[in-house]
Every structure is written in C-alpha cells, then in structure tokens.
Amino acid sequence: MSEQDREPMSVPATLTEEQNERVRARLERFARGTSVRIAARSLGYSRRYMRAVVAGEIRASVHFAAQVARVTRIDLAVLLGLVCGGGP
Questions:
Q1: Cβ of 37: how many Cβ atoms within 10 Å?
Q2: Where are the chain's structural domains?
Q3: What's the CA angle centered on 42, arms 40 and 46, to 5 degrees?
C-alpha cells in the first residue's frame, strides 16, 4: 500500500487514558514555568479546569489537548502519540 493510499491520521473524539496522561504531563511541565493564572489564560481555560486536569480529577478534552499542544509548541498528533516525534 502506497503512502497516498493510506487513511490520514485523525485525532480521536475522546482521549485514551494514555493520551490524557501525555497531555497532563506536558501541561504540568508548562505550568511549572509560569503561574497557574498565566498558564490558564494562555490556554483559554479556567484555572479550575486546568488544575482538575493536572490533578487527574477530569480527563482533558480534545480541544484542551490542542490548546496545550499550541502553547507548548508541539504538534497535536505528536502530543497524543499518534505519530513519532518525541514524548510529552
């Protein structure tokens, strides 16, 4: 099967436990370098939501994962482990 015949990679509708953990780990590292308020503002989410994701109380949404990827300058597919290119 040639490269052109393959289905393109797509982002799942909901994150798996592993993907959620990758997002959480990346978010934790990002938040360590700044204040929670600034990190939440950069993501466009409330501090409460961000804290709940970091604490593992809730699973991150796909949109939230995309925002984490954007602010940490990593491709969403790489962050979610859909393609090779580094860890969270």
A1: 10
A2: 15-79
A3: 25
Is pTM, for the whole model, over 0.85?
no
Q: Which two tokens stand for residue 44?
A: 């466009």
- What are the helix (H) ranges across 1-88? 17-32, 36-43, 47-55, 62-71, 76-79
List the chain pLDDT tens, one digit each, 88 residues: 555 556 555 656 789 999 999 999 999 999 998 888 999 999 999 999 999 999 999 999 999 999 999 999 999 999 999 887 655 5
Full 3-state SS string of 71-85? HCCCCHHHHCCCCCC
- What letter would DSSP give residue 2? -
User: Whole-angstrom Cα distance, residue 48 to residue 26?
Assistant: 17
Architecture of the domain spanning 15-79: Orthogonal Bundle (1.10)
30 phi/psi in degrees, rounded to 5: -65, -45
